[in-house]
Design a protein that fits this description.
4 helices
Length: 131
């Protein structure tokens, strides 16, 4: 009879431990998402490379996604900046001037992407499509 009562006493401990493990996993997954945002280095390379947007339009995977898309499809390498500007518009529907920094960041991101594309084409680096 004591063995049965001891085993019943241990089950809640195991259950609490499993619940704590699940809570830790949930906290760690949200930490990983936040860690990514904290690792974005907006000042890498000095003042000439200062950027005001979270996207990395010069990353090589954008080149491959650009070429793999269908001709009639839209691909935006600055998706995160675009979404931030749209969210700002939705929050401030009466005053669009509040969102000018978001608009400028999106324009700068697009400008950097197409500048990189043009430089690669001039240097003869392939992978951007037919022209």
């Amino acid at each position: 009879m004591t063995e049965v009562s001891e085993s019943k006493g241990r089950e809640p401990e195991k259950q609490e431990k499993a619940e704590n493990d699940n809570k830790d996993k949930a906290v760690n997954s949200s930490k990983n998402e936040n860690d990514f945002k904290e690792r974005v280095n907006f000042t890498k390379g000095g003042i000439e490379n200062l950027k005001f947007y979270p996207d990395d339009p010069k990353n090589h995977h954008h080149k491959y996604n650009w070429t793999l898309k269908e001709p009639s499809k839209f691909y935006d390498p600055c998706e995160e900046s675009r979404q931030a500007s749209l969210n700002c518009i939705l929050r401030n529907q009466e005053d669009r001037s509040v969102c000018t920094e978001y608009f400028e960041a999106y324009r700068e991101c697009k400008r950097d992407f197409f500048r990189k594309r043009k430089e690669d084409r001039i240097k003869g680096k392939g992978g951007w499509g037919f022209w």
